[in-house]
């Protein structure tokens, strides 16, 4: 577990995504982006003192921002021990992805019905920016834009509760990817996003949903959620040795 908070470097953003609002809104947005970009690893300790120094605000402001993030499931508030970036278990990861699939299906169906030409153009612009980020090697910004694409799509669905729920699921998904992604780290989400926009623009709900589910399959396939994998339980790891010791002996063992 990374117990040191790394500096939250600022990333260039478009004019429409410029941070504004109260001080805790700004702190919240910075930490949310750092999680979305996978710059804050699961399990990272979020020191109130360090964050207060970084953002130049009081601990009260920091606590309000962390409380909002905890409500979204991406930060864990531990009594008397401080806050940490959440580390979803394998079972939690599976539940989150199941919920994400249901929400993405609903959002896609509603976006086909409600998305305006202006919103579709904004989505296309986001895809271009996402592709440019990956092309120049800025993986963190590309991942953030990929997540923000899904948030913008939720807005196009014109259902406020889904937008709120999706915001939590997207950030939790980013944590899961950071924690469980295996194999190639290449991304082709911008190609899948473009095809999805085409289907929504043509008002083809069946094709749009199929493309979205394929997109979710692609993300899921990159994760190692095999519960039979590594463990931090020494007794479980060396259980075969313990079982061997318990077997009846066949005479006195020879010394090495």
Give the topology.
Layout: H1 23-36, E1 45-46, H2 48-55, H3 59-71, E2 75-78, E3 82-85, H4 90-114, H5 117-135, H6 139-156, H7 160-180, H8 189-201, H9 205-221, H10 234-237, H11 239-246
Antiparallel strand pairs: 1-3, 2-3
Helix pairs in contact: 1-3, 2-3, 4-6, 4-7, 4-9, 5-6, 5-8, 6-7, 8-9
Protein name: Putative GntR family transcriptional regulator
Region (Disordered): 1-21
Keywords: DNA-binding, Transcription, Transcription regulation
Helix fraction bin: 55-70%
**What's the number of structural domains?**
2
Could you tell me the radius of gyration in angstroms? 22 Å
How many extended strands? Answer: 3
The strand order across the widest sheet is 1-3-2
Q: Topology as H/E string? A: HEHHEEHHHHHHHH
**Distance N to C terminus:** 39 Å
- Give the CATH level 1 class of the largest domain: Mainly Alpha
- The general outline is globular
Specify the structural class.
Answer: mainly alpha
Whole-number mean pLDDT = 83
Number of helices: 11
Organism: Metapseudomonas resinovorans NBRC 106553
Protein name: Putative GntR family transcriptional regulator
Region (Disordered): 1-21
Keywords: DNA-binding, Transcription, Transcription regulation
Question: Can I get a quick summary?
Answer:
This protein is mostly helical and 256 residues long.
